[in-house]
Design a protein that fits this description.
Strand content: 5-15%
Order of helices and strands: HHEEEHEHHHHHHHEEEHEHHEHHEH
Distance between the termini: 56 Å
Strand order of the largest sheet: 3-1-2-4
Low-confidence stretches: 159-191
Helix content: 40-55%
Structural class: alpha/beta
Bound molecules: zinc ion
Number of strands: 10
Mean pLDDT: 81
Length: about 350
């Protein structure tokens, strides 16, 4: 080894970034890139490729710098493309659309083909992003379709056919699994479900995120975590509430990211429980774009019940999905903020943030 090579190896070994390369630390991704002289490629710190010899390594702040120095992007970690987490989120969102639009839920193999991943890897990525498996997602989506139909049509039979089931018999067989109860007990408002939840922090204060097997069913914001937990219990008195595990934390992180930046959208299934009237109001709220506001009177008109202004305000207050059902975008006729289930200061903060874009 020449003196110069040796000095270079020393410099690399004493660089704090070297440890991130050796441990393939995903947290270091985006902070720097490293090139390998012998292969001519540059990588993200988390790249799964063999750890290079330090004397062949150089560090760069950006992919452009690495390319200017004559290195090619690694085919494995694709350092010239958006971070893996972003790529995965986009990929999974596409797969969710594929699942939603399919007559018959696509198999894991089909999805893996679309994603150009192994079935094993796809399963892991999908679960990391959504908190559920592709199969559970497909079941939840179908169940939601049925529930929407049950609510809108009020007819169990129509709902079954709309959701693509060809015989009542088969639906009843599956309904327990899909709805967590039989169709008639769902219509009468029975609810015995398992709800996982976790409480975290966001810029607006404490945030509780809860999900049933069918999707996110509560996003509650407040000052006191204990009060949030009690509020959840009051809203779902018959459900079994259990603390979320480590995997659930990823779902919470997604929801928190969405609350911080509502324009990004939330690519997770929602489990929206309410009366037919509340559902109509909430649907109208979900159609208000971020950055704009409407009045209670306008919402009442939009849902075809112009006299039900007070009931609209009641439905806003009953909303369990803060930000996802954007009741903060409803204001008084004169533009005053009026009340907010989670505190008027939070409403102001949310609206200001959205106005800035
Ligand atoms: Zn690489």
């Amino acid at each position: 080894m020449s003196k110069q090579t040796e000095t270079h190896a020393h410099a690399v070994l004493s660089d704090t970034r070297w440890a991130s390369v050796v441990t393939r630390d995903p947290k270091a991704d985006g902070l720097f890139y490293y090139s390998v002289k012998t292969t001519g490629v540059y990588c993200r710190p988390s790249c799964g490729a063999r750890t290079p010899h330090p004397e062949n390594v150089s560090f760069f702040l950006t992919p452009t710098e690495a390319e200017r120095a004559g290195f090619r992007p690694c085919k494995r970690c694709k350092p010239d493309q958006p971070p893996l987490s972003v790529q995965h989120a986009k990929l999974v969102a596409d797969l969710c659309r594929q699942i939603e639009s399919a007559e018959v839920p696509p198999s894991l193999e089909t999805l893996a083909q679309t994603a150009q991943m192994s079935t094993y890897h796809l399963h892991r990525v999908f679960k990391a992003v959504t908190g559920v498996t592709p199969r559970a997602y497909a079941a939840a989506h179908r169940a939601k379709k049925i529930r929407d139909e049950l609510i809108q049509r009020g007819s169990v039979t129509d709902a079954i056919y709309e959701a693509g089931y060809n015989s009542n018999g088969r639906f009843y067989e599956e309904s327990n699994r899909l709805l967590g109860m039989t169709p008639t007990s769902f219509r009468t408002g029975g609810l015995k479900a398992i709800i996982r939840f976790a409480i975290g922090q966001c810029s607006l204060g404490a945030i509780l995120v809860a999900a049933s097997e069918r999707g996110v069913c509560a996003i509650l914001i407040g000052d006191d975590p204990d009060i949030l937990a009690r509020d959840l219990q009051d809203r779902f008195p018959k459900a079994d509430l259990i603390g979320g595990d480590a995997e659930f934390e990823q779902l919470v992180a997604k929801v928190v990211g969405f609350v911080e930046m509502p324009k990004r959208g939330l690519d997770l299934p929602l489990d929206i429980c309410g009366t037919a009237f509340q559902q109509r109001v909430w649907q109208a709220l979900r159609e208000i774009p971020a950055g704009s506001t409407v009045s209670y009177t306008e919402i009442a008109q939009r849902i075809g019940s112009p006299k039900a202004v007070r009931a609209v305000a009641g439905a806003c207050a009953a909303n369990a999905l803060a930000v996802a059902i954007p009741c903060h975008r409803v204001v008084r006729n004169n533009g005053d903020l009026s009340g907010y289930r989670w505190g008027v200061e939070r409403k102001r903060a949310l609206l200001e943030r959205e106005a800035k874009g």
